[in-house]
Write a structure and sequence with these properties.
Pfam families: Fer2 (PF00111), Fer2_2 (PF01799). The protein is α+β, with helices and mostly antiparallel strands and 160 residues long. It folds into two domains: 75 residues, Beta-grasp domain (Ubiquitin-like (UB roll)), CATH 3.10.20.30; 70 residues, DNA polymerase, domain 1 (Orthogonal Bundle), CATH 1.10.150.120. 36% of the residues lie in helices and 13% in strands. The protein has six helices and five strands; from the N terminus they run ββαβββααααα. A five-stranded mixed β-sheet has the order 2-1-5-3-4, sandwiched between helices. α3 packs across α6. The radius of gyration is 16 Å and the shape is globular.
């Protein structure tokens, strides 16, 4: 049995300890945002945030997640208000939508760690889009980073 927090809720999975997190989320918790793509972690469609890091859930056995905090696309925001989701819509990134949840989660984790990521950090994202939305994805990353940096900036007080 593996115990962890998923989207703020304490859960216990009574599954084989080698069950990939992806299948626990999709089949046992009915959280279907993380997609099953390649089975080898190469596409990133199954990306979730585990303890603040973007992780490919198809590669993580439940046995490695005892006590972990997992955030899925369903738990990123209640109403698509996360800056990455807002930027994704504003830049009209969506094509087929298959890679979308994984990309959004990977970008959210990246921007949380570095609101103004380097080109190398962005290029290191493991996610892939077969629809050719890469330029819009890059614009969405820049827009969301700017939104997150502005939100973290101190609010100026009254001038004296």
């Amino acid at each position: 049995m593996a115990s962890m927090t998923v989207n703020g809720q304490a859960l216990q999975y009574r599954l084989d300890p080698q069950t990939p997190l992806l299948w626990a989320l999709r089949e046992a918790s009915n959280l279907t945002g993380a997609k099953h793509g390649c089975d080898d972690g190469g596409c990133g469609a199954c990306t979730v945030i585990v303890d603040g890091r973007a992780e490919r859930s198809c590669q993580l056995p439940l046995s490695a997640l005892e006590g972990a905090s997992v955030i899925t696309i369903e738990g990123l925001s209640e109403n698509r208000s996360h800056p990455v989701q807002q930027a994704w819509l504003a830049e009209q990134v969506t094509q087929c939508g298959f890679c979308e949840p994984g990309f959004i989660m990977a970008i959210a984790a990246l921007l949380q760690a570095s609101p103004r990521p380097s080109a190398e950090q962005v290029a290191a994202l493991p996610n892939r889009c077969a629809c050719g939305a890469q330029l819009r994805i890059l614009r969405a990353i820049a827009r969301a980073g700017k939104m997150m940096a502005e939100a973290a900036a101190p609010i100026p007080g009254p001038k004296r």
